[in-house]
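User: My collaborator sent over this chain with a note saying "see what the structure looks like." That's all I know about it. Can you take a look?
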Amino acid sequence: MKYIFALAIGFIVSTTAAAEPDLTLQKVASNVYAIVGSVENRTAENSGNNATFGFIVTEQGVVLIDSGGTYQGAQKIHAMIQRITDKPVVTVINTGGQDHRWLGNGYFKSLGAEIIACTKAVEDQKARTKDQLFMLNQLVGAKGIAGTKPVYADKTFAQDMKRVIGSVTIEIHHAGAAHTPGDSFVWLPAQQVIFAGDIVYTERMLGILDHSHSKSWIKAFETLADYSPRHVIPGHGHATTLEKAKADTYGYLKFIREAVSAFMESGGDIADISKIDQSKYSYLSNSASLSGRNAQRVYSELEWE
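Assistant: Without extra context I'll predict from the sequence alone. Here is the result:
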């Protein structure tokens, strides 16, 4: 049975699937949906799907945005899609190189889907495949990772790609490195919806890691924001408004770079980076574990800049 309720941000509705308790389905616009996973870590229970995915139902078939963290995670995503339509998944777009963006490709490829990704995303996927599979094995276990094999994109693009699938115009844009080197966003001009991938985090603190680039991330967000989307489907968190995306992602990126810069200018050493007060963002999930590491990474970035 489906339970439907209106969210405060407008006509977006949410449908909770009892069969997949770790995933929530949100209808964002006509034939456009978000599949929202946990904002916590990867676990055996969520099959590595600790992220937000999405799909578009077209006359030709379903276009899926990001395929899940494992083969079994992809099966769970497909089960959510099938609650809305029995049309086949014809295209999968990977928005980046993080495991939950692409390691479910093998499942959808076996169903005949074409896979699309930015060239830099594929390069990143290939560079980190072994590390990602090792990490997943530790977090979801050997049983949870069973069937998961690296399958890379059939079609790649450098910066931009435009497709019309079942009369729906779909644009994919890579505006620079963000959380990962090949992060891209998907723009639906008719529906005014952006699938932001890991360029946008809401509800949980973003992670600035060794493969991230905070300065370029800000520019990528600004490019995305220039489209003035009516709805933003983030890489983590529920579908929301551009204002919320700015508050939780853009605002934090600007804040942490300015705070670390001021800390360095006052003679602060990286060993004392925890002295930077990030409490204004403590409302974000995982802030306690990520805030200090984010500051350290930005410190290292600014040293090179």
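A starting point for your reply to your collaborator: The chain has a mean pLDDT of 93.
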